[in-house]
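Translate sequence into structure tokens.
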Amino acid sequence: MACHDYCAIKPMPPGTKSLLGLGLKYCIKRPRPTNKLDNTINRFKNDVRRIHFFKMNPMEEDNGQYIPGLYIKSGWDPPLASDRIEDCIVSFERALRNRQAFYNKPSLSNLTPRHWTLIDELQSNDDHITIEADKNLGGCILDRSVYIRKGVQEHLGNDAVYKRLNKRQAFGANKILRYQVSIFLSKFQDDISAAEYTFLREATFKYPDKLARFRMSLKAHKTPWKMRPIVCCAGTFINCLSRWLDYWLQKCRPFVTTYLKDSGQLLDVLQDIGELPPTAKLFTADATSMYTNIDTNHAIDVIGKWLDSIANELPANFPLKAVKAAMVLVMKNNIFEWGDLYFLQLLGTAMGTSAACMWATIYFAVHEMGTLQPTYGHKMLLFKRFIDDIIGIWIDDGSGDDWQDFQRETNNFGILRWEFEELSESVNFLDLTITIKHNRITTRTFQKALNLYQYIPPNSAHPPGMMEGIIYGLMRNYRRQNTTTQDYNIMVIKLFRRHVARGWSKATMKEYILKAANRLNLPQTTTIQPTAAQTSPTNKERLFIHMEYHPNDISKKSVRAIYEQHCKSTFESSLGIKQTTIAYSRAPNLKDTLTKAKLHQAPGKEASKYYLGELTNC
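Result follows.
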């Protein structure tokens, strides 16, 4: 099955399944190169002029104050560089535009005319909506009325979790929140660095009125199927505060002993366990709607007290009081829109905000480290959690009393509840099947039965070299995940066959797989420390030429030749540029084109029409 279609009451346009069958990651190749070089040239000019400006006007070292993750690009345009540098820029631009003129000609797209018509129809279709399914299960078409009704019935209609606001109330609350963030900055200005203060202050100026947006994805793997709520907070000032909060909460990870980053870290832990007792069993547990089932006040209190308890172990510059104040602002003020409806999240973790994951992780870890591990640690050889999924190894004495008590105690913390699977010798966790065999842990790759394996087809307009990297990355994962060579070989064969089924030639895939296998088989050599002449260039010594990739556009080799002819020697001697990189960005894909964060308001199908107790939209 190439794609899912759920409850499509009105017939879908012909060809919809073939379009979504390409996969949402399928990059669109337009008939002409989409990069008209204006963006490339403008960014190149600004970067060169900026480097020149700071070369001529060196600033004091920031002493580590610059934080890449907490930075908002300013609207500052650097002044013109020296005549010599400007001449290089002009020559580079002229030569690049002249050269690209040979490529800027129409060619066949990688979509059919019918697909282009479908894209236009589906982008703002009054009857259907295109969304993404969880677990990489592809694109889905839902009847718009069903989608909105499910959003109200399963999520936003729960007035214990979401408070409905009218438009004036929503924007008024957002304005008050912006004022509260300003007070926060004034109060804690001395506790945070200049870079942090500038980031948070600029966020309130750059994003003063934008609200987060609610949308949903489909839990197609559930029976019956359900909707997963998603809040898109990108580009809001409150999420910038959440990014700052997450930056500091991440510093607490070393103190969370149950924290699990990913399945790779789990494999490292499992390798160190060794031989197991004969009565050892595996168990897993899954939280029930974790984010909306965390009592906000309880979490603020629990996490705050835990931070106080480890205050002496935190970094010296950890702004403890500011972090605790930011938790209240972020978690109690998640305001978002959905079509013509507006809501305030009353309960749980502020969905969609950057700190949500770490906040939820720390919250339950307090219970794990403070109660579960001290009480039941003698029964567990392993206890780890990846957000809302727990895995452990339990020493089963046969009575079952301790196991039942452990489950009850796990669920005795706030309003969050966990569903446990029975003790077993084999479990599926993340992308692993973990098994106890002959008192040893063995693993192999786990893939869901519904997986559509929508690997990127060969005619997707992805940058060159992409597929080699994908194949190598997948094979490296398979090698780590599979204890036996036989299981590894099975996964590689499946990888080959599935890519061939997606349109790749057998010869090409064989070449990619053999090349990846050779890399994986290379011996691990001792790392040799580079000499001073071999050290990597600093950010001040690197220049990037940014281009959007198109298969029929000017080649990277031609761009580099033009740069070396007109700029390289001058930039090296005058600006200290030691490395120039041509950085491709991918073209828009089907997901970018078909799925939208903002809900299209079809006439007569506005979100408010499906909401009981409609408010006056003042």
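Note: The first strand starts at residue 4 and ends at 6.
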